[in-house]
């Protein structure tokens, strides 16, 4: 019983650490996507963003070990006054990531990353 409780606490802590990379509020979104981002985390991120009026569309590519290797995405908010998109083809590489910051108050989005990132 103690082992199950300990394992549950460990999994919850690990999930918090990964999900803490991205935050979504009514006015801002700070999103970090890397090779360790799971299918479930992407779905949760999309849901969280939709609740705040931000449309996050994405097309992920996972390898046979279920690791994210590439992603194409588009973000739209404020009746399409904020739009940004990009893709990353080498998320499996160490340190590769996509980071985007969206601010609904200033109608702005900034997309950055490391590795093979292309912004549109």
Description:
The protein is of the alpha+beta class and 120 residues long. The chain has one domain. The protein is built from 2 helices and 8 strands, in the order αββαββββββ. Strands 1-2-6-7 form a 4-stranded antiparallel sheet, with helices on one face. The chain has a 4-stranded antiparallel sheet with strand order 3-4-5-8, with helices on one face. A hairpin with a 5-residue loop joins β3 and β4. The longest helix is centred in the N-terminal third of the chain and has 18 residues. The chain starts with a helix and ends with a strand. The N terminus is likely disordered.
Shape: globular
> Regions with pLDDT < 50 over 5+ consecutive residues?
2-20
Helix content: 25-40%
Number of strands: 8
Strand order of the largest sheet: 1-2-6-7
Structural class: alpha+beta
Q: Sketch the major β-sheet.
A: 4 strands, antiparallel
Q: What's the order of the H and E elements?
A: HEEHEEEEEE
Q: What Rg, in angstroms, do the CA atoms define?
A: 15 Å
Measured between the Cα atoms of the first and last residue, the distance is: 52 Å
> How many domains comprise the coordinates?
1
Q: Helical stretch count?
A: 2
Strand residues, percent: 35-45%
Mean pLDDT figure: 84
Summarize the structure.
The protein is of the alpha+beta class and 120 residues long. Helices cover 26% and strands 42% of the residues.
